[in-house]
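Morning!

This is the sequence you dropped in the shared folder:
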Amino acid sequence: MIKRLVLLLNIVCVLGLLMAYLSPYIPPTVWYIPQLFGLFYPYFLFFNVCFLTFWLVFKRTYAIYSFITILMGFGFISRVYKWNDIPVPESNEVIKLLSYNVKKFGTSSEGKTVNPKPLFEFVSQQNADISCFQEYSNSRYVKYGKSVLEDLYTYAHFNGELATFSKFPILKKQNISFCKNHYAKGIITDILIEKDTLRIINVHLESNQLSSKNKKDLEEVVNKKQGFEKLRSIAGKLKRASFHRVIQVEKIVDIVEESPYKIIVCGDFNDIPLSYSYGRINKLLDDSFVEAGENFGLTFSEGNINVRIDYIFSKTPFYKHEAHSIKHSDHKPITAFTKINLE
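The structure's back. Tokens below.
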């Protein structure tokens, strides 16, 4: 009787994992359900590993269900966990990139402010060649941050809450026009490195627009303190945002495909590695975490919600991707080295 119950639960988790595998391939505008399952991919994977271990001990015949299912999506594991140790080569073609949602340089979601000085000290210590900021604010950085950034960078491109700073000359600045009712921004910055042009796309895709109450409700569900009825409002917001991100990511894909230059896309995608948005970009460009990251590489943390939604993409080779733990935003800054192969 117990084994039958365990087998039933095993089959449910197998089906859940298979649904999660569909999320990068099916637009949520066509079928939204796989996107929800994609959110819980790490849990479905974990439970299937547990069932696999259980059946290997008690009845090996049944172990085949989880084994085959895990094997089918083995490539997805590298999107959530990596064990790379790739040294950074010494070369004048290697540059350091930084992407960071700074949340208005230390402004909390409740409107409270914290001292932004440690944040700028971190940026100064990283000394990246190119830095891309999301939720950027001129007003918060004027006193201390302005001198730090001006010491580091000669060139900059601003548009609203996006900013790209560069040690190399900027040849051209463009803004990406998304739909007016979408909460998304993007800028394109063409940078001259010796005689080669590198195109940087800095984006902040549609936020899920979860209120403080929504986040608290979600945390309570995760903690199993409340029932799932509170998820209805949250699921509706997630669905709307994912629909918008489909349109936004297709716009970025068009820009990438039409670019005559080497290209780097970075920023806050507000979407997890098993999502349609990620999948569309990853078809064209490599993820710095997958290529050169370690551990889970989580970039967003609020309460018990810990996910990876900030990325650096390119076809250039990556070295030493890091997600840094500093506490002046709900996002972690990410850095990566890349070799641009000057022509």
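Headline: The chain is about 40% helix and 25% strand.

More detail when I'm at my desk.
O.
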